[in-house]
Amino acid sequence: MSRDDVMAAYLSEREVLAPMSQGRSDRATARALSITDVTVTKRMANTFSKLGLSLDESDHRRVPAVVACLRDRHR
């Protein structure tokens, strides 16, 4: 996998964070980005994994994911 492929994957995962940070559902995010609900779910799972966020159902992983994205953006 080339650096461009890695960056494209990273960017595609991050693009789902913007609608999520606005409180959009997976379905609304999918519609906004012209992708499938399954694609949104996969990208978010990849993002959660890379951020080391647990799979515990009692945790809200979306909030820490958005916070991490915003921190990274302001560095």
From TrEMBL:
* Boundaries of every HTH luxR-type domain copy: 13-53
What Gene3D superfamilies does this protein map onto? Answer: Winged helix-like DNA-binding domain superfamily/Winged helix DNA-binding domain
Name under which the protein is recorded? LuxR C-terminal-related transcriptional regulator
Lineage of producing organism: Bacteria, Bacillati, Actinomycetota, Actinomycetes, Streptosporangiales
